[in-house]
Hints:
By secondary structure, this protein is an alpha+beta fold. It has four helices and three strands. It has two domains: 23-54, no CATH class; 56-120, no CATH class. It has helices at 28-32, 69-78, 96-99, 104-115, and strands at residues 37-38, 44-47, 50-53. It has a three-stranded antiparallel sheet with strand order 1-2-3, with no helix packed on it. The site of protoporphyrin IX containing FE (HEM) has 14 residues, from loops.
Amino acid sequence: MGAHGPEIIPELxxxxxxxxxxxxKVDTNSIKNGWSMFxxxxxxxxxxxxxxFAGNISSDETGIGNWTEEQFMTALRKGxxxxxxxxxxxxxxxxxxxxxxxxxxxxxxxxAYLKTTKPVRNIVPAPKLPSEL
Length: 133
Ligand code: HEM
């Protein structure tokens, strides 16, 4: 939060959940009552699936810097972690079920753009199981 409300932090753009930030305590009763909740900057979300952390999609090697276009397609079309066939499914709230309807050109354009972004080194933590909240 800045002086005028929520603000983008340009130097962290596209880098996902900041690995050096401790995860706040989760109100698991609200989750049992059907609620999901976001962390303070919307890069982590807790819900019935546990807790997910937004991926690093900056151009760094810890992001999509070493990815091929095909991997990016697999991530957005098939919802696969790291865009690798056979890897785990991407968790909510990553809306790949909607994004898979984008045209090949749109997905390629997003990928080409992300490759031009400032590399931000950040290894995003693994998701947590509901039992770990
Ligand atoms: C055009 C917009 C978006 C693009 C191109 C995009 C791309 C990606 C990619 C490529 C990954 C996989 C990262 C990896 O495997 O290392 C990812 C993960 C993720 N994204 Fe997105 N994303 C977009 C929008 C969103 C939105 C709107 C949300 C939340 C409301 C979101 C939340 C997440 C989360 C939580 C993950 C991690 C999921 C997991 O670990 O299972 N993304 N995103």
